[in-house]
Amino acid sequence: MGSSQVEQRSAKRAWYVAGISGLLVAGVIGWVTWKHYDLGTLDRPGPGFFPLLVAALMVIASVIALIEARGATYDVVPTNWRRFGIGAAVMLGGAGLLPVFGFLPVSLVGTTVSASLIEGKFQWKILVTMTGVTFGIWLIFERLLGIGLP
Questions:
Q1: In angstroms, rounded to a whole number, what is the distance separating the alpha carbons of residues 49 and 53?
Q2: What is the 8-class DSSP label of residue 78?
Q3: 134 and 144 belong to one structural domain
Q4: CB count, 10 Å around CB of 49?
Q5: Rounded to two decimals, what is the model's pTM?
Q6: pLDDT above 70 coverage of the chain, percent
Q7: Can you say how many angstroms the Cα of residue 50 is from the centroid of all Cα atoms in its chain?
Q8: Can you tell me the distance from the alpha carbon of 74 to that of 71, in angstroms, rounded to the nearest whole number?
Q9: Domain endpoint, select from 78, 100, 131
Q10: CA dist 20 to 1, 74, 144, Å?
Q11: Number of domains in the chain
Q12: Are residues 93 and 38 in the same domain?
């Protein structure tokens, strides 16, 4: 048995968690976007166009993860449920708070908390990086493309 088969088999629970949580997050993002933001047109996209596109891509990735989980037969990797729960709450909370507070504050807090969870601890470089990424996205969409973000 090659090492790639062992890696695939050891990820059964992770594939299921990724697939199901991805579908849930994509559903919430898609619903909030559909209800609260103008989609615009293909030649002049509105503020809801790209979030809805990302939600659709998340659905595709989640379905692929669920298909991969079916092929996995052994699970030895423990899941850190606390970390997963906080991460899911940050994403779902951000989707719900986006119409209330807007893109910049929700993205700054959400990306910094999510990145800190992935890293396992808070570091200043995470805050600086996520601030740069958030303002970069804002600059590209708001100023360069003229697409209003929520």
A1: 6
A2: P
A3: yes
A4: 18
A5: 0.53
A6: 87
A7: 13
A8: 10
A9: 78
A10: 29, 18, 35
A11: 2
A12: no
